[in-house]
């Protein structure tokens, strides 16, 4: 059974993303076709990228990088919950992605975004980053508006229609996770 990590991509004080990530986890945990775990970036503090070698070489010098690599390598796919900051993803999320390379490869990715415009631009930004990391982002995504899905911009009260979008996205992530499994177990190809 595949294991899917739900990455909470914000570490700000008073973040609303934790409510969103728990909502995703609550719905995902009802499924029997995969295991889901929450990965809060607050629990994995990484300094700004401080590895002397490019991540694509896999020559990690720092203990915090090796720990992060082991954590990410243990998952078969991901759902990333991200806010939109200035038309992009949070710096802490970009940094966490940039630290590694092979550990992200050939894994499916689903997106749950939130913001004034549903986090659409952060989702598009994340798709570009994921492509370079050789991740397979699925088409269906969940876009949550700070105007309509959050009371007073702080209490998460999603519309019922988001559950259908979430379940469809999870279906796609699990299908792609299974389809990509042979690539994750194949021997690495020399560059």
Query: What structural class do the secondary elements suggest?
Result: alpha/beta
Distance between the termini: 31 Å
> How many strand units?
7
Rg, alpha carbons = 16 Å
Description:
By secondary structure, the chain is of the alpha/beta class. It is 36% helix and 21% strand. It has a five-stranded parallel beta sheet, with helices on both faces. Strands 6-7 form a two-stranded antiparallel sheet. The longest helix has 25 residues, at 161-185. The protein is globular and about 45 Å long. The model has no long low-confidence stretch (mean pLDDT 95).
Search tags:
36% helix, 7 strands, 5 helices, 21% strand, 191 residues, 5-stranded parallel β-sheet, globular, two-stranded antiparallel sheet, alpha/beta, single chain
